Sequence to fold (226 residues):
Amino acid sequence: MIIAIDGPAGAGKSSTARAVAKRLGFRHLDSGAFYRALTYAALRHGMQPDTWDGLDPARLDALRVEGQPSADGFRLLCAGMDVSGHLREAEVTANVSRMAGVAAVRDWLLDRLRAASRGVDLVADGRDIGTVVFPDAELKVFLVADPVERARRRLVEHGRTQPDAVDVRAERERLEARDRLDSERAIAPLRRAPDAVEIDTTGLTFEEQVDRIVRLARDRAEELSR
Ligand code: CDP
Fold:
């Protein structure tokens, strides 16, 4: 069974997907982490973002990015080194949508993301999981939340206990700029799949949003077994 969770930046996809996977005993695939690992590796190799449009499969292979299956998900490696701790750095976040807009990058990753799903029950999150990567996913969820709430949560996640209005506004602008790039790009833009269940998490606690998806997944599994 595949559960696809898509949505805009900071809607809580990855943390929710991880918790849902844990509850159901599924593997978690954070597709954004792969785009982030490629971005980190390209920056480390001194490749300027304005040259990324010219990336081809051979140059992508040379970055040696791979997702190694771990107990419950995938560990992102670059040249054999675990880079998980670098994926949410500001420089990576600021440039990842540029990497994700390159057709050759999306092609290169598509095969790898699909290969990761073979033979396992999966909760995958990203922008195009229900539309492009796994269009036949048994359950599709589109997570949304108010932009101010998304910005506040993101700052809290980054260790700020009580973010002030100025910081929330700056974070909101960064999230919305990334949403624009992700929604307006030509290939695999951020879109709600027509058959996705939309969940607005603005007024929900984390536990509530996880519960809702777990319940949807159980209902779906029961429906499929009939
Ligand atoms: O966690 P957050 O919402 O900040 O983003 P993420 O899931 O880590 O994804 C980072 C970036 O990767 C997004 O802004 C997209 O540009 C890109 N991405 C994508 O294009 N397609 C996906 N399936 C997942 C991520």
Observations:
- DSSP finds nine helices and eight strands in the chain.
